[in-house]
Design brief:
By secondary structure, the protein is of the alpha/beta class. It folds into three domains: 109 residues, Rossmann fold (3-Layer(aba) Sandwich), CATH 3.40.50; 188 residues, Response regulator (Rossmann fold), CATH 3.40.50; 164 residues, Heat Shock Protein 90 (2-Layer Sandwich). It contains 16 helices and 18 strands. The protein has a five-stranded parallel beta sheet with strand order 2-1-3-4-5, with helices on both faces. Strands 7-9-10-12-11 form a five-stranded mixed beta sheet. The longest helix has 56 residues.
Length: 510
Amino acid sequence: MANKSGSLETRILVYAPIGKDAQLASKILDGAGMACTACRDASELSAELDKGVGVVLTVEEALAAGALAPLAQFVSRQPTWSDIPIVVLTHTGADSAGLDAAVERLGNLTLLERPVRTTTLISTIRSSLRARTRQYQVREADRRKDEFLASLGHELRNPLAPIRTSMAILKRMYPAAYGVTQVREVVERQVTHLTRLVDDLLDVARITSGKVELQCERIALSAVISHAVEICMPLLESSHHKIDVSYPPEPILLHADPVRLVQSLANILANAAKYTLKPDRIFFKARIENGNVIFSIKDPGIGLNQDSLLRIFDMFTQSDSTPGRVMGGLGIGLSLAKRFTEMHGGTIHAKSAGLCQGSEFVLTLPIVVDALSTDSASRHSIENEIFRARNRQVLVVDDNRDGADMLHRLFEADGFTVTTAYDGHEAVETVKRIQPDIVVMDIGMPGMDGYEAVRLIRLQPGGADILMIALTGWGQESTRQLAAEAGFDHHLVKPVDFDALKNFLENALG
């Protein structure tokens, strides 16, 4: 194999194992300043494809000699930005069966009938390389977009965190003050709404780049339903809707990603509330059928016309059934629900008799595991346990002083002994001094970040016994992995609801 200089991503892979075509083509292309790698067999071609390629140049007879399979496999698993150009030198005369199969399976295919003029070959390969370069530019644009969305999510979540914790403090300070309660509830609803918008935007970026993986675990059906309703309750109440919820009375256990499943149901339920324009009743049902759990969310709202039914799950699509009325939102909630449902191996579809006839969304998911016994369910339930905060020492670490101070006050109000540090260096020194039971730490801090701080804390005497929680605006899966590798026990995303954080600690600390 002759591997010439040049980037692997812009080289030409030449596979012509019979005759002198590979030698001649490589000589011509090398002379034109294009780097080539000649592959001796199909297994070498497959290995080189995975290293990087600009264009594949092969011959018709090589397709029947084993080249078609690795090429077709590579084409089928390309990322969305990629469409590898493949140039095939063909025989004169009738098409072969191998060539017909290549046209069917290889996609971006260019056929050149032999004998080929030198200028024709060079021109074709250069055009293919230019097209490949544009694909790399799309990949880079996607990468920059994902980085921007991740940074945007982090920057938006940081100020949301102290706002949410401040509202929780007001709730404790003035539990019965009507005027304060009204203002607090408005702020809490808007913070929740903005948080969901940020999460949905980041999920779009993760899904399109293939970075979303399900974190499946066993979870009770009742918990899934109650959490989805809880998320949407502020929207339902502000719209003066009633909700009828029904599901089997016996305990049902599911195997699913609880975050993604709840998110899917909440997105559909929120959609039902938004498109039911007058106060009315929304029905949320679940049943078990042939090992599947079937969720149904039915509303008496504006309904869907036939065109909307065909594209309602497309990204950035909103119903156009309300001309002149702006419904809000980004048009991505239902698309995310569809993606997450399909990742669980399920299906989702919408039904409507037409405009002003309401609509129904049905999710069918093959995720039922078993029925929990009453005793088992009660053992797994922590809803009624009392969390003993007394004598628990907490260290809150965040360079956002407002966020750190507000979280400090909330922990303190719930009976924790609390200390605050505003950077990684201070956190490491504080742990040496007070030996906390729990550390809640931001990651993206100047100087020493949370990753380095937790590594140093773990090396201290007693550091291995501390419950280390990353509380950060960075929510990507890569951040979660880095946090775990650095030594964090858990990774939570800002802004976190304090009651949810307290319940989380209750569970984690037993």
